[in-house]
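User: Predict the complex.
Assistant: Input components as received:
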Amino acid sequence: MLRFALKRVLGAIPTLLVLIALAFFLIKAAPGGPFDTDRRLPPEIEANLQAAYNLDEPLYRQFGLYLGGLLKGDFGPSFQYRDYTVTELIAAGFPVSLRLGGLAMLLAFVVGVAVGTVAALKQNAFTDHAAMAAAMIGISVPNFVMAPLLVLVFAVTLKWLPAGGLGDWRNFVLPVVALALPQIAYIARLTRGSMIEVLRADFIRTARAQGLPQRAVIIRHALKPALLPVISYLGPATAAIITGSVVIEQIFGVPGLGRFFVQGALNRDYTLVMGVVVFYGVLIVVFNLIVDLVYGWLDPRVQYQ
Amino acid sequence: MADAVLEVQSLNVRFTTPDGPVQAVRNLEFRVNPGETLGIVGESGSGKSQTALAIMGLLAANGRADGSARFKGDELIGLSDGDMNRVRGAQISMVFQDPMTSLNPYLTVGNQMRHVLQRHLGLSRGEALRHARTMLEMVRISEAERRLAMYPHELSGGMRQRVMIAMALSCRPGLLIADEPTTALDVTVQAQILKLMRELKSEFNTSILLITHDMGVVAGNADSVLVMRDGECREYGSVDKVFYKPADDYTRALLAAVPRLDEAMPERLATVSAPPTELGAEIAAVEKPRTNHAARQLLTVDGLGVRFRVAQPGLFARAQSLVAVDDVSFELAAGETLGVVGESGCGKSSLARAVLQLIPTASGRVCLLGRDLEQLARRELKNMRRDMQVIFQDPQASLDPRMTVAQIVGEPLNTFRPDLGQPERNERILSVLLRVGLAAEHLNRYPHEFSGGQAQRIGIARALMFDPQLIVCDEPVSALDVSIQAQIINLLMDLQVERGLSLIFIAHDLAVVRHISHRVMVMYLGRAVEVADRQSLYEHPRHPYTLALINAVPIPDPVVERSRQQQPLSGDLPSPLEPPSGCGFRTRCPHAIQRCADERPLLRPVGKSLVACHRAEEIE
Amino acid sequence: MNAATKTSTIRGRALSTDVWETLKKNRAAFVATLLLAVMSVMVVVAPILSPYAFDATDFDRISVGPSLSTLHLFGTDALGRDLFVRTMYGGRISLMVGLVATAVSLVIGIAWGATAGFIGGRSDHVMMRIVDVLYAMPFMFFVILLMVFFGRSIVLIFVAIGAINWLDMARIVRGQTLSLKEKEFVEAARAGGVSNVKIVLHHIVPNLLGVVAVYVTLTIPQVILVESFLSFLGLGVQEPMTSWGALVNEGAQEMETAPWMLIFPGAFLATTLFCLNFIGDGLRDALDPRDRSN
Ligand code: SF4
């Protein structure tokens, strides 16, 4: 299992390299530079800046230098936030996003699986239709509508909770719920579908033929296989959600990672964009590995060699 | 008469479907006495499985049962799920058809067995596991302790079915319902499982309700028989009565439609056609001597080998090489039928595909009409394909679901005669369709509107379009009910006589192969172990494996079955990934000696047969 | 009969029968289809009937609620523009985004997936590895970058979104192709001398269409949501043109003072997504081969 994990990590290195190269050259190819502002800078200052960020080097050298820095965990200095390195920016934003996203995913998993299972058991009955209609709303309403709506109801009108910001757990409730709602909906739909399929399997009939009561059949026999597609979904989804959401961060005033994706690209902040792209890529690889391991633990037919 | 274990009275099962209500079982009555085995026989759709599920309270959600089914006097129909759960598994238990899918692949064998014991007998975890172990030993599973920790996929098919039986019997139920318990298994494994069930029945003093489509299985295992058709009982009585004095036309037709290993063969198989009244007439078989047109050599296969690269489960495993067909040679004359038999995984389907050049060959030559197919340019091979056609096992799967019958049957015309105009096309399509017994009205229908037998006729029509010389039939009847099977075999044999066709007929059913073939090749683990003309092979089988196969086939005759010495082959097929050294069969062969492990036996003439066995002369 | 008409009749009849059967049986899907059709007609036709242009400012009536007398059926926005007309125009854009982007992803996805699946072996491996790499890219980064590249032209937004959305489609199509290619009817075609190109066109693609149809109905709503997210970032269509996403976004900012600005476009957006999802679910249930057997 350890060897398997190691192999997977090694196997991911080429993927990451291609990813970094792709992102690097794409950004470089984009028209406009980081120092294009309304007020043109004097040429010598611009030249100095270029030199400071190695922009005067040929492209392949820039790429080499960048990779060299990456190996040391150095994402380089930010172009936009002049006083910070990208590493510092990520280090500041990630814990916030991780906490928000992690909590949201946990909530989504628990609630989503529960709702999906219940809906599957009551297939085509009222409970099922109600749950699935709610889930449909969850995936159909954009979160920039849902979030302000939550604020309006729970913060402004009912005054139960603060409308975001940082502070104690109460500040977290609304953003976590807003983040989790679409995920709950998606996971519930996924669980329902796979649970219905599993419940049709021959081995479930066997379990019932042995007189095991419904609860035991579900928990002992059906849940594991029904969770497999959910687990596959959770990997990349978690990676995406713990790297932050611009919408939620903006509406709730949370200083997370998500805004960097957008700002970096808009401001041609090369190093910042590269930093978040690489960071995201690594997370995707890591979470896919975790998914594989969990999958193997749930499904004995998968073997690590 | 003693109190019945199970007494079923006016049982009805109805389903509500989007197309209206469907009655699957109609007014069924029967009883199972203590220690008795009642066989319920019927073809697909006869309602035999629904009967069992109704008794167990396991009907699908849209199904409803009424009437009465009393287990030792207690009514089962209409019992709540909770009450039923006290009966299921404890007093009545059930074994299903496919041991592959009927065990939970995510749980160890021990855990699956333990749940039942803890639930019904109130045992502790440890006690339950100990009991489970004893049960595994009782179903003759070796190394029981180790098997408890294994997952179903780590066991062979036969072993899995033993686990199912162990689990079903673990609470000593009064009644065991076995729904096609051996249908998914190879014939040698089937023999093992049936023997085991007979033995356990007396050890556990259990009554058995045996549901099957196979008259042979009933003959050897049941005390009474109930024949079902379209949800109704057609005949019910002791096994001897049903087999020797069948009162019902359908029963008679069913018995006549089964090709038998132990009888002189009628030229045509009797078929069961739809209106039951005509059945009597159909049974009168037309005796026509079968002539062998063996004249011209059509096909020569020389040293053919097929290899697959198998990706092991696991994400980074190295691919292994699996030898599916190993050095197989044979010849086929015009108008001749070569039967190829063997159990699953013996390489017979790969052989078929390799002969047709549908998969790459690793070694050897295939010559059709004197031309080496491998040497042909793509164009030429394409043209040769007019002369070699194929019919597949699953008739539905071999027809493109999004094409109409006209498009399917007409596809060869697109390939070879794109110049034909619409009227000519239609005419040619219609003429082959009519030949295989379909009609003009079928032209614009889609495959799913046809039954299995009709779908197979469409496949045959497609193969016949250019009057080929050779048709390779890969298990063409094994997915069909006996009565339909008989029709298709008759059709193939008629076509052969009419058009001088050569057939390679691949099947696992020895009786069917015997009926249709002139010569027969027996395969084991990718090799031909015996090749002989039909008579020699069945009357004087020389290879121990051939003999074992023939002995394992149940014969639809209770007296014959009772008098047979059943000594089924032990063990399972070895993994083709790691075949035994020397003779592939040595791990299961009762005659194996040291030489068999050291030296690979080659096909050599013994008597009138070709046999690959070192000891062929000594064995009779 | 030539090849082209043949394939089209195959999928034309059989698949449409499948779809029709679904709609007849599944009431939710049926209603959803009707509703969707009505809305599509409406966004095309309705603006013509209103006296207001989508970008005309009514200075006398800025941010007024819906009223029949002024013929501002949905009220006006902060610039006094008629919200009804804007909602209809926005709908044109949003639906078009959905269709065009989905079509782009459809073409790339089917071509890529079917090729990889049918050829198999090393090419398949490499092609799928490329998909993996692209998967590891943050989606939004891509969109924004492309936008920076090409400026904010609507058409390019569609294409960009489609060009990124094809990954899932490619994976699904590949998986299906892999299993279809093992089917006996494909073997039968090969045994009948049918060429590889024709096998793909006549046998593989028509059988893929069911799954693709399902996926399409589920992709369109996704794309519409992405567009609305871009509008949230201020990267969507440019003023005075608008889309449902842009309208909803404006509305969300004014939800306390001018709720109609959120409610009307929001209702249209949500209803459309609802309908498409219902149709997709219905189709999936109907086309699932396991379901058909029982
Ligand atoms: S060669 Fe040996 S092992 Fe093989 S069949 Fe003959 S006797 Fe048995």
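DSSP finds 23 helices and 22 strands in chain B.
Let me know if you want any component modeled separately.
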